[in-house]
Amino acid sequence: MTQKDVEDMFSRFGRIINSRVLVDQTTGLSRGVAFIRFDKRSEAEEAITNFNGHKPPGSSEPITVKFAANPNQNKNVALLSQLCHSPARRFGGPVHHQAQRFRSAENQELPPPCSWQRAARVPLLSGLHITSGTPQFGNPWFSPMGVDHMSGLSGVNVPGNASSGWCIFIYNLGQDADEGILWQMFGPFGAVTNVKVIRDFNTNKCKGFGFVTMTNYEEAAMAIASLNGYRLGDKILQVSFKTNKSHK
Q1: Are residues 135 and 208 in the same domain?
Q2: Which of 57, 58, 184, 194 is a good FRET partner for 233, with 20 to 30 A between their CA atoms?
Q3: Strands (E) located in the chain
Q4: Do residue 75 and residue 184 come from a single domain?
Q5: Number of domains in the chain
Q6: Contact yes or no for 14/38 (Cβ under 8 A)
Q7: Which residue ranges does the record assign to the RRM domain (predicted)?
Q8: Single pTM value for the model
Q9: What is the pLDDT tens value at each position of the chain, 248 positions in all?
Q10: What is the C-alpha separation between 23 and 82, in angstroms, rounded?
Q11: What's the CATH code of the domain at 165?
């Protein structure tokens, strides 16, 4: 399925903010995993009700449709808690300001334990994770994006400001960092079009940095102000707009 196929299939349930179909970086073929972010939680719920376990035309197996990042899952609770309470986390003001944009009667029924969770809740609860059959890789969410033989950023085309969006540079990631954690970190702040963790060709371990591309400047700036300087595991991240001098 292409991204257009997925959007055509799900658009009848409501306004789609953004979508993503994960593809193999070598073959260009779909990995059988997609993400859709709806404008409203109710739209996402209706899509789940109608399509979870449904077999699309041309598919040999039914698809699984569920919320992409249920805050009740231990993994996500731990992530949100870490973002809220990390001693290295800074710029609390902008996060609180961002939170006001998502206030509604529906959301106030579930008071969050911290302002970051309030800001994150709407995107998390309205995002769908869609899988078709058995994923072609170990992690059912993401697979390492292959990086050709390179040193530093040689051959990586990720401009800070291009027609495709605003590129954010994330430095000091741990060796086990993957694309999944970047999607979960930056997705709550706005539309993310691409994530990339730069890996060592021989070990497939993260080389300590990665990139996230967001479509909207204000959302990208908010993500940077909110996430720069917080601790992820035993690492304190440096988050900034990507420049030509980024990690050369």
Answers
A1: no
A2: 194
A3: 16-23, 30-38, 63-67, 127-132, 161-162, 165-171, 192-199, 206-214, 231-232, 235-236, 238-241
A4: no
A5: 2
A6: yes
A7: 1-70, 166-244
A8: 0.43
A9: 788 888 899 999 999 887 777 766 567 777 677 778 888 889 988 999 998 888 888 778 888 888 764 433 444 444 444 444 444 443 333 333 333 333 333 333 333 333 333 333 333 345 555 555 433 332 323 222 222 222 333 334 444 555 578 999 999 999 999 888 898 888 877 788 899 999 999 999 999 999 999 988 888 888 888 888 878 889 999 999 988 665 54
A10: 30
A11: 3.30.70.330
Write out the DSSP string of 147-208.
Answer: --S-STTTT----SEETTEEEEEEES--TT--HHHHHHHHGGGS-EEEEEEEE-TTT--EEE
Measured CA to CA, the distance from residue 125 to residue 196 in angstroms comes to 24
Do the domain assignments include residue 219? yes
- Asked whether residue 62 is assigned to any structural domain, the reply reads yes
Task: Say if residue 42 is in the same domain as residue 75.
Answer: yes
Same domain, 169 and 138: no
Burial 194-213, CB ≥16 within 10 A → b, else e: bbbbbbeeeeeebbbbbbbb
Separation of CA 138 from chain center: 18
Separation CA 228–CA 11 (nearest Å): 35
Residue 193 domain boundaries: 161-241
Q: Beta-carbon neighbour count of residue 158 at 10 Å?
A: 19
No. of H helices and E strands in the chain?
A: 8, 11
Burial class of 149 by CB neighbour count within 10 A (0 to 12, 13 to 18, 19+): exposed
DSSP strand pairing (165-171 vs 16-23):
unpaired
The residue behind tokens 């990390």 is: 86
